[in-house]
Specification:
Transcription Regulator spoIIAA; about 170 residues; 5 strands; single chain; 2 domains; alpha/beta
Length: about 170
């Protein structure tokens, strides 16, 4: 099993590939616990690249769902319920998880998710350490604040120019 982690706003997206069984899922379980401890409660697990999903892996995903929900978050899956990995567990999965065909659909299903007009370049990694995820979240917030400050600065300049023009009209200069 391989997986990559990226973040879109406060939503952690984990793309999973290969066989996910009791031997390979332990590392991902630790990663999920670490992310939850870091205050990340909204997840998308993209399972389209999974060849086999064992019951131990499903148990880890269910545990992550329970923890995420206890903090007001949620785990959503990207994979058709007709995907061969869900053959035997289709009823259980549909009761516990919301499933989506695409990652974009899953993202947009989070009520607080806001589409961005700016094209964002994403850097693929096999694993993103927690410190890098925190740094990325801080950068996202700084960019949002900078955009808000630019609007405020533009409004301030517009007001100054308007006052200057009014002053010229009054004084005739």
């Amino acid at each position: 099993m391989k997986y990559s982690i990226k973040q879109e706003q406060d939503i952690v997206i984990i793309d999973v590939f290969g066989r996910v069984d009791s031997f390979t899922v332990a590392k991902m379980k630790e990663e999920l616990h670490s992310l939850i401890n870091a205050g990340k409660f909204n997840y998308i697990l993209d399972l389209e690249g999974v060849e086999y999903l064992g019951s131990a892996a499903l148990g880890v995903f269910i545990e992550a769902q329970e923890k995420a929900r206890s903090y007001g978050g949620e785990v959503k899956l990207v994979a058709s319920l007709n995907h061969h990995i869900f053959k035997e567990d289709k009823k259980i999965i549909s009761k516990i998880f919301k499933t989506y065909i695409t990652e974009q659909q899953a993202l947009e299903s989070f009520s607080h998710f806001q589409k961005r007009d700016i094209h964002k370049i994403e850097y693929p990694y096999i694993k993103m350490p927690q410190s890098e995820m925190i740094a990325e979240a801080i950068l996202d917030e700084l960019m949002r604040l900078l955009a808000a400050d630019r609007r405020k600065l533009k409004d301030l300049i517009d007001n100054i120019l308007e006052d200057k023009n009014e002053h010229k009209k009054k004084t005739g200069t």
